[in-house]
Each structure stands twice: as C-alpha cells, then as structure tokens.
Design a protein that fits this description.
This protein is α/β, with parallel strands linked by helices and 467 residues long. Helices cover 31% and strands 25% of the residues. It is globular and about 80 Å long. The two termini are 47 Å apart.
C-alpha cells in the first residue's frame, strides 16, 4: 500500500501472524542540509504518477524479498522541523529479508517516485531537490537522438519497448548501462551477485566509494533511475548457472554479456540460441579486448571456439590488472551494438570479432562463419565443471617448492615442473596460488580422458582463509 498524506503521519499497526521480522523506518525533517540551517520544507508530487510508481515499487519489493506486507506513507505539503516526511513498514518471514527490503525501498523511493522536496533555509533562500527528474520532461531526454534519420520516432519507440538483460554490472556493464538508459531502453534487467568494492571503482564508474559493501545491482538500479526515472529496472542478485539461465534469457529481447567468466559466456551463448535471442559479448584483458554479436541465425561463440576455454586460463583483472578505460570502451561498444540490434539502423558485428589494443591503438576484425555440427548453434552446452569450491578426493599442491604459504590440510606436494600422472583412481583436486595453473592442468588432463580432475577455485589463499 502506497499513500500520500497532507496531514501528519500516524504510523499504522502492522500485524501478520506469519511474519517473524517487522522493520519500520521514519524519515524526519532535519534542521540542516549540507551545512546550511533549514527552516522548513515542502513536498510536491504528481499524485497519480507517484501512487502508480510507488505501488509498482512495493509490488517489486514483495516479489524480490518475499514480503508478507509492505507499506509506505509519504507526506506532501509543508513540513516543520522534526515532522515525519516518510514512513516505511515491511513484514517478512525472517528479519534478514525485512531489513534488506526496507533499505531497498528507501533507495528506490528516492530515485523512482516523482516526489520533489523544496528546502527553505533560514536565510530565506530555497532549493528544489530532485527537480532535475521531472517526469513531464522525459521526452526531452532522447530528443536529440530522435533527430537522427536512422533513429527517428519509430526507432525510439522500438527502444522504449525493448527489454535488455545486462549480465554483469562490473567494468563492462557499468559502461553499457548509462548509454542504454540514456538511449531510452524501456526495461533493463541487471544480473550480478557481487557487492561494490573499492578496488573496482577505477573502472566501475557508476558506483561511489560510500556504496562499498552494497549489492551492485541495487546501486546500479539507483544510478539508472537517477539518469532516467522512466526506465524500468529489474534486478537479479544471483550467479547465472544452468538452473536459471533459461528463465533469465527468455524474459528479454537482447542479452549483453559483461561477465569475466568463460563458463557463463558459453552458457549464455547456448541459452540465447535456444531462445532465439541476440547475444552481445565482450572480453577484456589488461590493455585489450574483443567484441562480437551473436544473432539467432549467425555464427555463435562456439563456432569460433569449438573447444571451450576454462575459467582461469587467463588472469583476471584482480590478478593481472586492467586499465580502467578498457572495459569502459568495450562496454560503450556493447551498448552501441544493442541499440543497432533493436533499431536495425546499421550493420552489427554478426560475422566478425572486433579486437582492439588500446596500448597501440591497433584494431583488427576477425571473420567468423557458421561451423557444421556446432553444438552451440544447437543450443547445447556441456559445463566443464573444472572448478570446485572445496577440495575433493586426493588434494595435490602443484606449486613450486619455494612457494608459500603452506597448505593447512592433508595434501600431496607435486610441483607442476615435475608433474606426471600417477594413475589415481579417485577424484583429484589440484591447487595452485590462484587457480590458474591448476585449472590449465585439469583442462589438459580432461582432454587426455581423465574426467575426475578438478581445480580449486581461488587457490591456496581461498582455502587457507577457511581454516
């Protein structure tokens, strides 16, 4: 239930026998803002629009967090210091969901619902907060884009009706998102299980330092709403795997792959083929990257790479570093490809892979073609299952003898430089410093017919941190 109230808020009593967690929030008028003394403030709203969007927000919260009840009461009119400006109440089966839902509603309410605050300062001056997002001006956001003959009103309508799934809102995704939202894409789905980290902000530029530790999808959704309050953002704080990929892909018109997982890339490739959805995929490494678009009837990722590389075969950004502008450039190009696919105003990278080295500013296009008997084109994906999160069977440390720290569990020390297969009949888990060397070894042994070999995800540091 979402309400606007022109009189002081009286918090309702929430009762639900099935709920174990009740969380309420009160936002009150404070006597200062950014170092200036506040005398009073006024809230104004477009009632029909505010109630419609507020109701939709609460419906999303109910589905996202499994809420049993949720309510928001927001004041309009003039408020004095200390008065309650907004009251939020949620009820859930458990307190964790209730706390998370309340915080999410607070964030979404601020950026999505068309309610504006006018602060009156003691010296007599006043300022409107949030007035830059007046919904009546939404059409101005894309006005200059519509002037292009290649877009026009028809192309803009296609963008407004499009549903785009952005898998990963890290370096690539945080560069794609502003341009997709600014272009007027109507619905944007965001998939990412991770939280904002300070070490990522040099390339994940839609986040700020004070958002560290919070879910990327939620903060990315807030950033999207600030730029274009009319965009509908659907968040999925989860890892893409075989159990959910079909549900995710089937619900959207275009899929953009912004992940750093080769397993997920090939998983998305097969799912997009099964559901006849365009896939725009990119990968970056240090100063370079590549980009391609896979259309339902064009050559797919596995046409180009018949043997799927395994995760860890190349170093990640955390391991080998990355220049921040590299994912920025390729993320923008992914947004461009998506806009082209939706509006059909120009050719896309359907039969080419674009490679670009930002260190030398050299680019290259590699021709791609359909491959007979390609399982990826048939929508078939065989998970490699090379990585495990916990050791299984015989544990073999393949680091060289001078590498530290020492493993804290029972293991065999067999350096990679001296490695030879010794006929193990039970499962074997290889461990190295980061998982890269052990992943390569496991992949090579599987190609030789040894199916029960694995690589420990994250390597020694991850394992020792568990003990």
């Amino acid at each position: 239930m979402f309400q606007l109230s022109s009189t002081p808020i009286i918090p309702p009593l929430m009762e639900c026998a099935r709920a174990g967690g009740f969380v309420t929030f009160e936002g009150r008028v404070r006597d200062h803002a950014e170092g200036r003394a506040v005398e009073r403030l006024t809230y104004e709203a477009y009632p029909e629009m505010a109630i419609a969007e507020g109701t939709r927000l609460l419906e999303e919260a109910k589905e996202k967090f499994g809420l049993l009840d949720s309510r928001v009461i927001h004041r309009v009119g003039t408020l004095e210091i200390g008065e309650v400006a907004v009251w939020i109440g949620v009820a859930a089966a458990h307190r964790r969901e209730a706390f998370a839902a309340c915080e999410w509603i607070i964030d979404q309410l601020k950026h999505r619902v068309p309610i504006w605050k006018h602060e009156i300062f003691s010296e007599g001056a006043g300022v409107w907060v949030g007035a830059e997002s007046v919904p009546l001006e939404f059409g101005l956001l894309t006005q200059r884009q519509e002037l292009l003959d290649e877009i026009g009103p028809e192309g803009q309508a296609k963008l407004r009706n499009a549903r785009v799934l952005l898998v990963g809102v890290g370096g690539l995704g945080s560069a794609s998102l502003p341009y997709l939202v600014g272009a007027g894409v109507g619905t944007l789905g965001l998939v990412d299980p991770d939280q904002v980290e300070l070490t990522n902000l040099h390339r994940q530029v839609i986040y700020s330092a004070n958002e560290t530790g919070r879910l990327k999808v939620d903060r990315a959704a807030a950033a999207a709403s600030r730029l274009n309050p009319s965009v509908r953002v659907e968040t999925h704080a989860l890892e893409v795997d075989g159990s959910n990929v079909d549900r995710l892909v089937s619900g959207y018109d275009v899929v953009i792959d912004g992940t750093d997982s080769l397993e997920v890339k090939f998983l998305l490739n097969a799912a997009c083929r099964r559901h006849q959805k365009p896939l725009i995929t990119a990968s970056i490494h240090r100063f370079e990257g590549h980009l391609m678009t896979v259309l339902p009837d064009g050559p797919c990722l596995r046409c180009l790479f018949p043997t799927q590389p395994h995760d860890g075969c190349v170093g990640t950004c955390a391991q080998v570093g990355v220049l921040g502008v590299v994912p920025g450039l390729f993320g923008v190009l992914q947004a461009l490809e998506a806009i082209k696919v939706i509006t059909d105003f120009s050719d896309v990278l359907t039969e080419d892979m674009l490679l670009f080295d930002l260190k030398s500013l050299q680019s290259l296009k590699v021709k791609r073609s359909l491959r007979d008997g390609c399982e990826g084109c048939a929508g078939i994906h065989h998970p490699l299952n090379l990585q495990v999160s916990d050791p299984v069977g015989v544990v073999i440390d393949i680091r060289e003898l001078d590498e530290t720290p020492q493993l804290l569990i029972s293991h065999i020390r067999l350096p990679l430089s001296r490695f030879a297969w010794q006929g193990w009949t039970e499962p074997v888990t290889f461990i190295c410093a980061s998982g890269q060397r052990s992943g390569n070894l496991a992949a090579n042994l599987r190609e030789q017919g040894h199916s029960q070999v694995y690589s420990l995800k994250g390597g020694v540091e991850r394992l020792n941190s568990c003990f």
